Amino acid sequence: MTQHRRSAGLKVVGALAVPTIAALALSGCSTSASSTSSSGGSQEFSLSFATSNNIESPFQTLAEDYMKSHSNVKITFNPQPNDSYDQTLRTQLQAGNASDVVVTTPGSGQGRSILPLAQAGFLEPLDDAAKKLVPSGSDALFGADSKVYGQAMEITVVGLVANETAAKASGITDFPADFAALEKQCKNLQSSGKSLFALAGAAAPNTGLMAMSLAASRVYAGDPDWNAKRTANQVTFAGSDGWKSALDAVKKLNDAGCFQQGAAGAGFDAITQGLASGTSVAGFIPAPSWKQLKTAAAGSEFDVRALPAEQASDKAYTFASANYAFSINAASKNKDAAKAFLDWAAEPEQTKAFAEIDGALPVSGLDSYDFNGSAYKNVADLIKGGKYGPLPNSQWPNSSVYDALATGVQGLITGQKTTDQVLQAMDAAWGQ
Predict the structure, then answer these.
(1) Could you give the CA distance from residue 283 to residue 206 in angstroms, rounded to a whole number?
(2) Which CATH superfamily does the domain covering 5-155+322-364 fall into?
(3) Which pLDDT value is given to residue 29?
(4) pTM of the prediction?
(5) Does CATH place domain 158-319+377-430 in 3.40.190.10?
């Protein structure tokens, strides 16, 4: 993939993701650290981020590295469970007690998304260091009127993370190349007490992510501008054959036994346990999870893959974009200290280190990146060929559309909803 340069500097790619492993307990409302001077003496600020795992967050690791190299800085960490992070963040911002630095996502499709939070006056405009990291062509996802409110840190591929060791042990020599082969493989694994996919069916972020992954080749491969057409009311979810096919595919996966037993009521821990133990082969999770899972399952190799298209001859496509962004709370009393941290985090050495810590792709230097020696070798052609785009919901007008999709997929799995009902709900949510 070619990295583009403008007069403002190096640009990268942008959007969203969902962490995977076991949830931490909600630590309650956070409070902004006491105000301190930015010139000399001790400097303090607080940092909030979403977490779904019991392994240290890359955001916390990066911040701890900052404290090691800046002995006068004290950072208070306020991790929140991923499935409640959006609501908790907005509640704290409205109450005026959110952390000084908060982790957000580009666009407008989630409760933590940059655009609605900036429009509500909750986020502070950032400086040139952050502007240089705005994805080329994605300025509208990071702000408006030449202002940006988020600082990208990495490139995250979203598709499948597969336990290649478990796949081989289960007799999978070649990953299914089309949907029919995938369904057949699901039935074979089910007969041996295993599943092709581990699904957190009770966690809306995971069901929504699965549905969008199914829509990658069915909707966006052939029409990357589908979201823009939906915004212009030229298309609808309910009238889209591609979206109908994507949601019908959810039911086909369920009927073929592609998910583990009890998937409808499972949480994120089912993904960790299934993939780490090898009882499930793959999961619909952000690519950086391969590194966490490899740590949890010593001796197993994990790779990133794109979900097979309906037909092997169909266009392959995946999602890749900036996963998260750092933003500064507009009500912070420690803006100078927070901005100093973001300026440091924007330096190439730190962005490279962050990607390595998290297991993601770096925001620059992909032309020389060694895909063959990495967990990303199976998606190398898609990334280098530009056959990818940001997660769809980063361009949706509000979080209600994604909520309608995610909860709707849960209903598809339990048999309580139909494809048409889910798509109609998404259209209704679009205008809210």
Answers:
(1) 9
(2) Periplasmic binding protein-like II (3.40.190.10)
(3) 33
(4) 0.77
(5) yes
